[in-house]
Queue: 2 jobs
Job 1
Amino acid sequence: MIRFPDNFVWGAATSAYQIEGATGADGRSPSIWDTFAAMPGAVAGGHTGDPACDHYRRYREDVALMADLDLRAYRFSVAWPRIRPAGADRTNAAGLDFYDRLVDALCAHGIEPLPTLYHWDLPQELEDRGGWTVRDTAERFAGYAVAVHDRLGDRVRTWTTLNEPWCSAYLGYGSGLHAPGRRDPAAAFAALHHLLLAHGLAAQALRAGGARSIGLVVNPAAVRPVDPASAADLDAVRLVDGLHNRIILEPVLGRGYPDDMLEHMSRYGSGLGAGHGGLDWLEATDEKTIGAPLDLLGVNFYAPTYVAARPGAPGAPPYPGSEGIDFPPPTGPVTDMGWGIDPSALTDVLRRIGADAPGIPLMVTENGAAFPDRIVDGRVRDAGRIGYLDGHLRAAHAALAAGVDLRGYLAWSLLDNFEWAEGYGKRFGLVHVDYATQRRTCKDSAHWYGSVVAANALPGDPPGD
Ligand code: PNW
């Protein structure tokens, strides 16, 4: 048996836009994902966030499922456009009522609520005024965070501000693969800065309002060279690691932006239009604000990233300035997303973040895999997912054994859901969702995970098929 520490937090994660549906209910205004999904070609199959898993109406059933699986914690996100429609400063009580009922249902089952305040559903009206490229959005986020804390703070102990600012900034404003679909390196860096500023302002405001534990969820990359003996490949690792990890972690941990990243960003305009050159979005006290004290770092992890130097390579659009770097596809086994399966990369990431952030507890806030389900006699067979989870839990345990202060593990995802630009075709759930009927069926992996949670341990031998 591979035992986990007592009080290890076991759970699962979801996000609002991916599961709730009911996008017009109770005063919610459109988010950038409603707008983006309506653009022809933006999302596979023309899918949108409606009806998703209809979780807005079926949350009781979903909480009961979590209880059946013995989960101890549930990470969900709060939809900003439900709480502050159109991004205005007026709070919509009906929107808060939903999360109030959800938190009550979780508490009634002894499941710890772990809300994330921003999982990519920016009110469209704020995007129309510049979105994350402008400072006003960061300031409004802090106000929204306080409104949620005022209502749920009596039952929620741990808050996380943003989910994966890397994705919001680089996929949303750099490569255009995610909402709002902009393709502008300058806008990507301005967006990243205002996202981090939003985190810092919200952390300060939540703390002032009495919040006890405040965290941020990042998706650090395990960047590996194709040829570890090549100095040029190692230079490529250094740049991609900088653009993915250091540019976020260093300021968040109170050390400010790394010099090489400031220099890199200053090669692009500010993203604010003509007349705004350089880093004119960076104000004197911003780095101090971004480095507000942190009680938890959430780590989302799926797959390692390989890079090689190759003159003339176009680079990867999410990484501004990565021309001359090749991002080869994985050579080993992959999931349905085409992402490589290599659990050792999770150990590496946890050890690295643990060393970078001494004294700050870590939690795996997302880890999981998309696989096509095989449904045999009503049973959902997903041995691939069990193997993935088992391998990554062993890798998390290896990090614990190496001294990393890892407090918990949340599987992505509780339910099959709206997988962003991939629509409903990619299934990450422990629980299968039949979108035609909204029927939920626990997959083999859900039963397997429930038994791991109940035992607080993995069996000594990896599972067979
Ligand atoms: C994360 N990438 O997204 C998100 O937090 C989840 O909402 C999402 O469903 C899950 O991972 C699976 O995709 C990512 O392209 C999306 O590197 C894309 C990337 C990384 C994370």
Note: Residues 109 and 370 are 28 Å apart (CA to CA).
Job 2
Amino acid sequence: MAIERTFSIIKPDATERNLTGAVNAVIEKAGLRIVAQKRIRMTRGQAETFYAVHKARPFFGELVEFMTSGPVVVQVLEGEGAILKYRDVMGATDPSKAAEGTIRKLYAKSIGENSVHGSDAPETAVVEIAQFFAGNEIVG
Ligand code: UDP
């Protein structure tokens, strides 16, 4: 399998509970390398752009509120099949359906406040990484 890069966000519910290191430990244990990372406060505009695909969904407003409610940690993860691997490591969107040992099973509070984001495909990974990182901020 090819070496890929995926985009990750440690969401406000996790930063609020000081879980950045705990989430990173699960990521690194799974064999993914954190090749870029920064803690930011997302603006409303950034959150609306990032989740534009969900604009028509009933939870969109709440999601934007949540993602701008506190600091997030944006990351680029690298490794063999990183996109699917990180989706596995994250677990299902709804933590009550997430498998044992996944980040969401361990730490998520609800289907909305679910601790992490990870890109769902190579095309979205490229777009999402470019929204938050310049090329020279990623050190593989
Ligand atoms: N979300 C929500 N309510 C829902 C479904 C999703 O608040 O019923 C939020 C949740 O934070 C989720 C994000 O919207 O992570 C994006 O949803 P998606 O279906 O893309 O899930 P993901 O790819 O994050 O697992």
Note: The mean pLDDT is 98.
